[in-house]
Amino acid sequence: MSWEMTGKYVANCNCQLICPCPVDGTPTGSDGECRGVAVFQIASGKLDDTDLSGIAFAFCNWFPSNLSAGGWKVGIVLDDGASAAQATALESILHGEAGGPFADFAALYGEWLGVERASVTFSDGDTPSASVAGRVSYTFESLPGPDGGVTTVKNAMFGFAPEFRIGKAQVHSDLFGLDFDGVYGETADFTFASAMDENAPKGRA
């Protein structure tokens, strides 16, 4: 299988500012765990001959400890506008069966919570926002950087992108029974593929 996708994501989790998961630190959620939702909007993408452009999905996570310790719980909410073929292709990618960064993730999965279908939306801009299943809705707010800029993390051990903006994204989520109140947020453009640059940072879920 050969696949690729590019687009933008916005994520939130219950870790206190700043989330230590990208540097493989111990989660700082109120229960000592990291629970989060990351919504991805695919601008362009495909798996073999299946076009994935325009599809949005949510990657829901529970990390019981630092990321490299494994034991993750992962569930996916796929926008109900995706066709059956697109849904099958994305599940194959996200479950790690099609290679690439999600295959690296799959080695750390403790429990695959499956795939649900519901409305998933993403709104771009300086303050990107996302909504999942009509139950979870959040907006990203950047932490201020120098000279009125934004704060970023670059070349982290775990990252959905080589560099991403960090900030706040407050929300309550109960997707897949992973109840949490979001505090931390991050956002960036992403590029994933079945064959990635060996020197690129590992993706963060």
TrEMBL record:
InterPro entries per UniProt: DUF1326
Origin superkingdom: Bacteria
Protein's UniProt name: DUF1326 domain-containing protein
One Pfam family of this chain: DUF1326
